[in-house]
Amino acid sequence: MDVTETPLAAPLNVGFDYTRxxxxxxxxxxxxxxxxxxxxxxxxxxxxxxxxxxxxxxTAEQLGEFVPVGEEGTVVSWSWCPEPLDGQPLSRxxxxxLVKLDGADTALLHAVDAGSPENIHSGQRVRxxxxxxxxxxxxxxxxxxxxxxxxTAPTEAAPPVAEREEGAPVSVVITPVHLKYMHSASPxxxxxxxxxAEGKLIGQRCPACEKVYxxxxxxxxxxxxxxTEEVELPDTGIVTTFCIVNVPFLGQRLKPPYVAAYxxxxxxxxxxxxxxxxxxxxxxxxxxxxxxxxxxRDEWWTSLENISHFEPTGEPDAxxxxxxxxx
Amino acid sequence: xxxxxxxxxxxxxNVRETPGTTNGVExxxxxxxxxxxxTGLSKQDIGFWCSGSSDYLAGRAFSFIAAVDAIGAFPPIHxxxxxxxxxxxxxxxxxxxxxxxxETALVYGFGKSSAGQLxxxxxxxxxxxxxxxxxxxxxxxxxxxxxxxxxAGLWSEKDLAEVAARGTGKDVGxxxxxxxxxxxxxxxxxxxxxxxxxxxxxxxxxxxRDIVDHPAVISGIxxxxxxxxxxxxxxxxxxxxxxxxxxxDLDGADLAELHAPFTHQELILRAALGLGDxxxxxxxxxxxxxxxxxxxxxxxxxxxxxxxxxxxxRKAVAHATSGPALQQNLVTVLEAR
Lengths: 327, 337
Ligand SMILES: [Zn+2]
What we know:
The structure holds two protein chains of two kinds. By secondary structure, chain A is mainly beta. The longest helix of chain A has 12 residues, at 23-34. Chain A has helices spanning 23-34, 187-197, 320-323; strands at residues 9-21, 38-42, 48-49, 66-69, 72-81, 94-101, 108-112, 125-130, 141-146, 172-184, 201-205, 212-213, 229-233, 236-245, 258-265, 272-276, 289-294, 307-312. In chain A, strand 2 (38-42) and strand 3 (48-49) form a beta hairpin. In chain A, strands 7-6-5-8-9 form a five-stranded antiparallel beta sheet, with no helix packed on it. Chain B is an alpha/beta fold. Chain B has a ten-stranded mixed beta sheet. In chain B, strand 9 (255-257), helix 11 (263-273) and strand 10 (280-281) form a beta-alpha-beta unit. The interface between A and B is large, with 67 and 64 residues. The site of zinc ion has 7 residues of chain A, from loops.
């Protein structure tokens, strides 16, 4: 194996709307925000918690006495954020701060638009800058401003809201999550993917048990050692097991019914999932001999998608005993 | 109930960025081999396997499953996982041995922190209703915690620089001349982003005596949690660490490995654990030298145990943390017996 080649890597962007039901305490809090009101909750020691907590942090007692608090408050502590990250309340430098609102005994973590670190200090008086559109979400508080600061800058767009009847209370909050990664393939997988770009099926043999894996493994699941010796495999093999897909689903590329099958290439010790087309779905059998149908060469890249599907060769089926231990 | 000891420890090189996969296999295979060589054990000798890692760090669901390949998990093994620092996986393994279910256990943690944007990924540990939607980053939250102590006079910027200087050998004055990275924190106050992995082998004390000359006997292990509401607790203290320490016997400890990803957090932990001047703190360099996510806490336990194995400590305290601003803390006491 050529170990000097750097593994293949590509950006991996993950995104989803994190959707949660609110319950009675946080539900009341976010519905208040929608009406530009802030409510805390009284703890069993009499302290008013903002944001409200469902259970007392000290006694674990369930809480339910809501207390309105002010839109102005005092900075308890802060840190400066010189280069805001994606998703933070402001895209210009700002301060993160714990803000104790008037009438509250605990502090809320939020952003203060102070311009520069010289313009913020603990003890400073700040006030809420509401979002243009309030929807029932913590981001209805766009950020805080020093009490005497001008209030001119537009705020960011409101977060998405769950569908609900006009005028009905908010019972769900949605937080869009977007994370960016650089995803790396292992050295073994990289050899395999680079092979595919040249129309080759490259497996690797475990040095301990001599099993041939395709795609090759960072470690043999039996021996815990990386596979090393390269083995070029033919594009023929058998169907070990399969299913007929009859159900439509989001993103489906083929019209049902069609066959998704485990294909065991000749000389390999592990099957991989692919499509079997080119015959009636009802005619696919365990042990059926198949061959790869490659896409045109100018469409090849570092992907198993270069093989559009497998199709029957017409040879006699393999005997069940010959592949039973691969099921 | 059988007493439990640490019989082996190994860790991957701590680097800023590995070229490997987020499933950790490339980092784990060599350190499994190393810990088996050191202990003379093989995978057939391990009764229970437990790991710590995070899907959010890897950017994929069930990312720890692929790491199981590094074990050589066929025929099937007895395995578990925690979505936390592997110090908590060690706790689970300790329980398995205490309950008499197994005699040995192998615990590992891994993480490729460099794959994503770590301080942003860690926002997913926060309250999902009113905090995560703001995406506060881990460095900013620590900055708020540090300032509370600075302004209350509990520590000074010089105290923080002294913590950093001890590990790096750098000059305190020079460190203080550096600009703020995120006022009030300077670069030296913040643990580096590190890719890494660590592995610890636990066994009954009886079994450990066959494996190492000086087993590191776990004489106590406690973990506690503080409120996740950052504005509702006194961030200049660590009540959960104090509670853990109170339940343990720390008298006579000569070494402490503390998992403090920020300089001021080491000061909070020293106070919470009541460590005197006679206790050597973080000879390994601690998390400020290398902070491989999900193994840095386990590595503190492993580093402390390794000192006992070498006869360099008689009694050591090892601490691991998880969550923002020292929210959750696990304290282990190790003794040469
Ligand atoms: Zn093998």
